[in-house]
């Protein structure tokens, strides 16, 4: 069973588009063209224009078309880290991207319990294990995991992979702390912890 989460009061409010610096408005226009709406996190980050610009540039580098990290792997990372950090907005938009990149909702629906699923290959499993080891406070990246990661990636790719995980932690923790809502991009599993918390509000 699935629901779509909308609304809820954010802990910091966005300003009218017209009140943001003129040089940020093309970013908003591009989001509206791409997603059909301006993204709430962009409006919040943009309260500090320099921060918004830095975040936008960093995201653009990590999600560029010629990234050595496969697009599906990138999406698996962004969704899983978002789930761990309870970011409703990130789960929503990143799940929609993952579904688009894989052509179905199967991996989206199985991702919280990827260890029990046959949908993920060995490379994806190592990446997800690494993402969890970096994200969970009570886990560490040990030599065994590092060695298994080196079976699939060179050192430059591992740096980029780690940068993506770190960025998604930054993004999802920021959005979760400020209680930024999902914007209706993807169906969300009712059974997941982040959705149960939203239902209880």
From TrEMBL:
<dbReference type="InterPro" id="IPR029032">
    <property type="entry name" value="AhpD-like"/>
</dbReference>
<dbReference type="Pfam" id="PF02627">
    <property type="entry name" value="CMD"/>
</dbReference>
<feature type="domain" description="Carboxymuconolactone decarboxylase-like">
    <location>
        <begin position="49"/>
        <end position="133"/>
    </location>
</feature>
<protein>
    <submittedName>
        <fullName>AhpD family alkylhydroperoxidase</fullName>
    </submittedName>
</protein>
<dbReference type="InterPro" id="IPR003779">
    <property type="entry name" value="CMD-like"/>
</dbReference>
<dbReference type="InterPro" id="IPR004675">
    <property type="entry name" value="AhpD_core"/>
</dbReference>
């Amino acid at each position: 069973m699935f629901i779509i989460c909308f609304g809820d009061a954010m802990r910091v409010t966005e300003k009218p588009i017209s009140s943001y610096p003129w040089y940020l408005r093309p970013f908003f226009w591009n989001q509206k063209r791409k997603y059909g709406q301006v993204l709430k996190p962009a409006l919040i980050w943009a309260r500090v224009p320099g921060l918004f610009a830095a975040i936008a540039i960093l995201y653009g580098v990590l999600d560029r078309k010629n990234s050595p990290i496969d697009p599906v792997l990138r999406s698996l990372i962004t969704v899983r880290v978002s789930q761990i950090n309870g970011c409703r907005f990130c789960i929503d938009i990143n799940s929609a991207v993952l579904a688009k990149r894989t052509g179905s909702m199967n991996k989206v629906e199985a991702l919280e319990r990827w260890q029990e699923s046959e949908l993920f290959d060995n490379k994806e499993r190592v990446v997800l294990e690494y993402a969890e080891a970096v994200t969970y406070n009570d886990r560490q990246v040990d030599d065994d995991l590092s060695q298994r990661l080196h079976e699939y990636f060179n050192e430059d790719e591992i740096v980029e992979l780690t940068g993506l995980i770190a960025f998604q932690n930054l993004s999802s923790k920021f959005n979760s702390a400020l209680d930024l809502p999902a914007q209706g991009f993807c169906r969300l599993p009712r059974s997941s912890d982040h959705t149960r918390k939203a239902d209880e509000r």
